[in-house]
Amino acid sequence: MTAAWKAAGLTYNRYLAIAARAARRSLKEDKRIIAERRGGMELRFAKWENGKMGESQDLAKANAAAMAEHASS
Do residues 63 and 13 touch, judged by C-beta distance below 8 A? Predict the structure, then answer.
């Protein structure tokens, strides 16, 4: 059986981001503000080919681009 997030065409990271955002939005105002500050995504990654590191990319932007490309196909 395929996981619901996979059947919906989401990556696992995107699924977790959506779930975390929903959880943060359900909090009371004071706790929500604190949680939203922690929720910012500032992760970077780089692809390695033939033992050499490629260009470092922002994970959020790369994920958004991949989702847009997936939606258009």
Answer: yes
pLDDT in tens, 42-72: 778 888 999 999 988 888 888 888 888 888 8
Residues whose CB is less than 8 angstroms from the CB of residue 22 and which lie 6 or more positions away in sequence, other chains included: none
pLDDT, residue 41, reads 60
Amino acid 53 reads M
Q: Which amino acid is at 43?
A: L
Domain limits, the chain:
1-40, 42-72
Residues 5 and 19: beta-carbon distance below 8 Å? no
Residue 52 confidence (pLDDT): 92
Cβ-Cβ contacts under 8 Å for 55 (sequence gap 6 or more): 46
Cβ atoms of 32 and 24 within 8 Å: the answer is yes
The pTM assigned to this predicted structure is 0.46
